């Protein structure tokens, strides 16, 4: 039965890589494994349970609602324009600066595709205008799209927090230094690659009019709104405690309300956008979590989870590298590490102490590995968006981001676990 389970898991990720509907593939795989194991009801119950998960559902849905309002009001665009203008003033560090600007924006706007579209339309023309080659310009922006691993609204951080019995900001504080170090290292490595390949600043000249076509008049108050919830969460966290503690939904709702008041757009339309985001968050994010829960339960019923745990108990190093590079490889191939990270966190991370690690450390490493793997994938939606803006093949981005993402994964792996 274990070998059958392994075959089903490989088939699952094959179909996900082939771009079949992820939720359907996970559900069918979970049902098949549970049926073979003789307990299909438990798999169905696991699916239903996630839709009423009080720790995950409100956080994910409200973050998505906030994100939709920020996009509709233009606040996200003003923030991006503000940071882009700062980079234009220091062309010598524009490549690593572009990586890090995108990284920090991806914390406030946790959708990789969303931040790629918002940042790419402004930052890529800026990079081209100072002589950066198109492939390097797209690579610099794409390399920053794993900043969402530090977002309190990313599905994995509340998941790990719930397993560990702590708040979300405690989870993020555990790995923030390691992730920031890895992000800086990746940005500097890409700068070196740009120098070696002669693709950096001054390697070509396309004219400043390209930047002017993408510029907007910045409203600095609008630019502040998208980052306000993050600021509130940090200042109110147990590690800082400068203000009363906020939950993620509370901070995001306050940010949404301020977006309404400050931008003064049509309140009815903004309300529709908020609830559209809430609905899409439930459909696209909570839905895949529920489907993954069904898949995880199927692995448990058929005996695959216990077999995997027994194998990993034999060596801490196996557990360590599997947690990082299992999701990394699948994400690099498929363009998304969500399914693999959710499955690993659901099946293995609760047993982290068995391997000598903490739940927070292992669970965080899993999602960071998946995020970094996606950040070198040529089939990730964000890579395709940026390649189209820059007018290049997405594989050109992968060639440049492969070394920085692998090095960043090793840095987090050896400093966190």
TrEMBL record:
NCBIfam families tied to this protein: DcuC_1
Keywords for the protein's UniProt record, in alphabetical order: Cell membrane, Membrane, Transmembrane, Transmembrane helix, Transport
Protein name stated in the entry: C4-dicarboxylate transporter, DcuC family
Subcellular location: Cell membrane
Regions that span the bilayer: 24-45, 51-69, 90-109, 115-132, 139-158, 178-197, 218-236, 242-262, 282-303, 323-344
GO molecular function: C4-dicarboxylate transmembrane transporter activity
A Pfam family that the UniProt record links to this protein: DcuC
Main location: membrane
Similarity section: Belongs to the DcuC/DcuD transporter (TC 2.A.61) family.
Coiled coil regions, renumbered to chain: none
PANTHER family linked: ANAEROBIC C4-DICARBOXYLATE TRANSPORTER DCUC-RELATED
Keyword set includes Transmembrane: yes
Gene Ontology, cellular component aspect: plasma membrane
Bilayer topology: Multi-pass membrane protein
């Amino acid at each position: 039965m274990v070998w059958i389970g392994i075959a089903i898991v490989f088939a699952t990720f094959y179909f996900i890589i082939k771009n079949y509907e992820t939720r359907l593939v996970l559900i069918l795989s979970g049902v098949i494994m549970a049926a073979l194991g003789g307990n299909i009801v438990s798999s169905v119950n696991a699916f239903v349970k996630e839709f009423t998960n009080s720790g995950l559902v409100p956080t994910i849905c409200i973050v998505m609602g906030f994100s939709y309002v920020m996009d509709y009001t233009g606040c996200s665009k003003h923030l991006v324009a503000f940071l882009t203008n700062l980079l234009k003033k220091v062309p010598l560090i524009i490549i690593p600066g572009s990586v890090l600007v995108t990284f920090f924006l991806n914390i406030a706007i946790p959708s990789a595709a969303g931040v790629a579209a918002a940042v790419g339309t402004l930052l890529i023309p800026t990079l081209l205008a100072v002589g950066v080659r198109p492939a390097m310009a797209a690579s610099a922006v794409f390399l920053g799209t794993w900043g969402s691993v530090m977002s309190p609204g990313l599905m994995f951080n509340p998941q790990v927090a719930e397993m560990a019995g702590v708040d979300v900001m405690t989870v993020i504080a555990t790995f923030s230094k390691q992730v920031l170090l890895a992000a800086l290292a990746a940005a500097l490595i890409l700068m070196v690659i740009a120098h070696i390949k002669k693709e950096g600043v001054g390697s070509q000249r396309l004219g400043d009019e390209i930047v002017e076509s993408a510029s907007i008049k910045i409203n600095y108050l609008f630019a502040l709104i998208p980052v306000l919830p993050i600021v509130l969460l940090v200042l109110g966290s147990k590690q800082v405690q400068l203000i009363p503690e906020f939950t993620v939904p509370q901070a995001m709702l306050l940010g949404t309300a301020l977006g309404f008041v400050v931008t003064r757009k049509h309140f009815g339309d903004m309300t529709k956008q908020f609830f559209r985001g809430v609905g899409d968050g439930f459909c696209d994010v909570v839905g895949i979590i529920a489907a993954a829960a069904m898949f995880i339960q199927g692995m448990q019923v058929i005996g695959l989870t216990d077999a995997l745990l027994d194998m990993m108990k034999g060596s801490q190093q196996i557990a360590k590298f599997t947690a990082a590079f299992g999701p990394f490889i699948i994400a690099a191939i498929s363009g998304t590490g969500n399914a693999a990270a959710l499955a690993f966190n659901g099946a293995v991370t609760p047993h982290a102490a068995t391997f000598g690690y903490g739940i927070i450390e292992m669970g965080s490493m899993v999602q960071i590995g998946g995020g970094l793997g996606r950040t070198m994938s040529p089939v990730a939606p964000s890579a395709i968006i940026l390649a189209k803006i820059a007018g290049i093949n997405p594989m050109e981005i992968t060639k440049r981001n492969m070394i920085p993402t692998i090095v960043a994964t090793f840095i987090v792996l050896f400093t966190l676990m």
